[in-house]
Design brief:
α2 packs across α11 and α7 crosses α8 (173-186). The protein has 18 helices and 14 strands. A hairpin with a 5-residue loop joins β10 and β11. The chain is an alpha+beta fold. It folds into 3 domains: 2-299 and 391-432, 2,3-Dihydroxybiphenyl 1,2-Dioxygenase, domain 1; 301-351; 354-387 and 435-463, no CATH class. It has a 5-stranded mixed sheet. It is an enzyme of class 1 (oxidoreductase). One of its GO terms (molecular function) is dioxygenase activity. This is 2-oxoadipate dioxygenase/decarboxylase. Its cofactor is Fe(2+).
């Protein structure tokens, strides 16, 4: 029998091989990421594995896909549910980007700490919003919804196998192999000719809308390795002649602790695609919809920490507008060094980041009583704090990556009232709860605190 985590690991590995065949620059990205990680490990030793073992970091991938209808999203949830992956977080990219990006998103991923350590594969999954009047008028919405309703992305056999794997948390080896073949094939780039006129109609509104609703299949838009030094990765990829986007999305590089998520990518490639013209001829065209993303993950921030982070981004934007001649990265670094705590201990003491805690191996054993308060316990060596890695995404960064790889800004009517979509709405669409990442991190932190309290003979909840 093949367990869910082994199915997940095998799916991620096969998807990576498939995407490497389709997009050779992705293989270069993986190779350079591995080189950078090996160099960082040699230079920094055990400190390089502070946020995950090198085995986990090397195997780590996140994919990105786009679907068009609630039905398709429910089917995606069934496929990923077979792999022990749950919808976590709600991301509204419609308002996060200046360009037209008419999607809302969630990420399917494992949620248990042990499962994440075994294989943290996650898929950022975006749903098109045809009902959003800022992008689609009534006529185009009707045409788009009719087109999407007529297609089938996932064969019934795949969905049946997925449901069995989700219910039993494993599959017999032969059925596991069949599931993996069908699942990978569902995300391959189709050779079916694209209706040129229809695609261009949608592309005038949004390149993302065209990529989702202008074809009869779905595909992997990017598959993202994890790297320990994203600035060095960006430099080495550029040296190899691969065009990278201009900026690294997320927090700046600075001397303090890495927090949240930093992302960059090589630019979307002009891939040859068969196109059917209005006259019925099939010609060779090119579409720019897929790109190679890479990420560096930091410490997960609490709600208070995220509020600080968002406020600092606003401050950076304001100062950059006032000082157009100054490099944005330099501005961000200066803002971070003035306002962001410069150590893990300070982040923990101020309640800005999530940690797991365990009794310190060198804690006093002379019969003395532990001090009151979590901060004192950590400072005096009674308790060790280990940071929780940020397993999720950032709306502004995701929108920035999307926007950096679009060929045009598209069009949107900001005078129209936008359709209201939120996490509750998306939960209803999927038919299962979209989990709150803050709750997941806090639950993991609190479990560790309860174990520490028991081990040290303390009463009450540690704060």
């Amino acid at each position: 029998m093949i367990s869910q985590w082994r199915l997940r690991a095998a799916f991620a590995e096969r998807l990576s091989r498939m995407y490497g065949r389709e997009v050779p620059s992705y293989t270069t990205l993986v190779d350079v990421s591995r080189e950078v990680n090996e160099d960082v490990l040699r230079a920094r030793g055990a400190d390089a594995e502070r946020l995950g073992s090198i085995g986990r970091v090397t195997a780590e991938r996140h994919g990105a896909i786009r679907v068009g209808t609630p039905r398709e999203l429910r089917q995606v949830a069934r496929v990923f549910g077979a792999l022990g992956m749950h919808p976590v977080g709600f991301y509204d990219l419609r308002e996060a980007a200046a360009s037209a990006v008419p999607v809302v998103s969630t990420a399917f991923r494992p949620v248990d700490g042990e499962e994440l350590a075994r294989n943290p594969f996650r898929v950022f999954t975006s749903l098109l919003t045809p009902a959003h009047p800022r992008f689609f008028d009534a006529d185009l919405r009707a045409r788009l919804e009719a087109f999407l309703a007529a297609r089938e992305l996932f064969p019934p056999e795949l969905l049946a196998l997925a449901d069995r794997a989700a219910a039993e948390r494993e599959l017999p080896e032969e059925q596991a192999e069949r599931f993996l073949r069908l699942a990978v094939a569902a995300f391959e780039l189709s050779a079916e000719p694209v209706d040129q006129a229809w695609y261009e109609t949608l592309e005038r509104i949004s390149a993302v809308a065209a990529d989702i609703g202008g074809v009869r299949s779905t595909h992997i838009n990017h598959l993202t390795p994890r790297v320990l030094d994203i600035d060095e990765l960006h430099r080495r990829m550029t040296e190899r002649g691969i065009e990278m986007i201009d900026t690294i999305q997320g927090p700046p590089a600075w001397k303090g602790p890495d927090v949240l998520l930093r992302q960059t990518s090589f630019r979307a490639l002009a891939e040859p695609r068969a196109m059917r013209t209005p006259d019925g001829d099939v010609v060779t065209g090119a579409l720019r919809v897929r790109f190679g993303e890479v990420e560096a993950r930091g410490i997960a921030l609490t709600r208070q920490g995220r509020a600080l982070y968002d406020g600092l981004l606003d401050r950076v934007a304001e100062q950059a507008a006032q000082n157009p001649g100054e490099a944005r990265g330099d501005i961000a670094r200066a803002v971070w060094e003035r306002h962001m705590p410069g150590s893990e201990q300070e982040l923990a003491a101020e309640g800005l980041a999530y940690f797991t805690y365990r009794p310190g191996p060198d804690r006093p054993r002379d019969g003395s009583r532990p001090p009151a308060g979590l901060g004192a316990l950590v400072r005096q060596g009674w308790v060790c704090a280990e940071p929780l890695v940020h397993e999720d995404f950032l709306p502004r960064s995701a929108a920035g990556i999307f926007q950096s790889n679009l060929s045009g800004r598209g069009s949107r009517d900001n005078d129209r009232q936008g359709a209201v979509h939120d996490a509750d709405w998306l939960s209803g669409v999927i038919g299962r709860d979209v989990l709150d990442p803050f709750v997941l991190y806090e639950r993991q932190q609190n479990r560790s605190l309860e174990e520490v309290a028991r081990a040290l003979g303390l009463t009450g909840i540690l704060r």
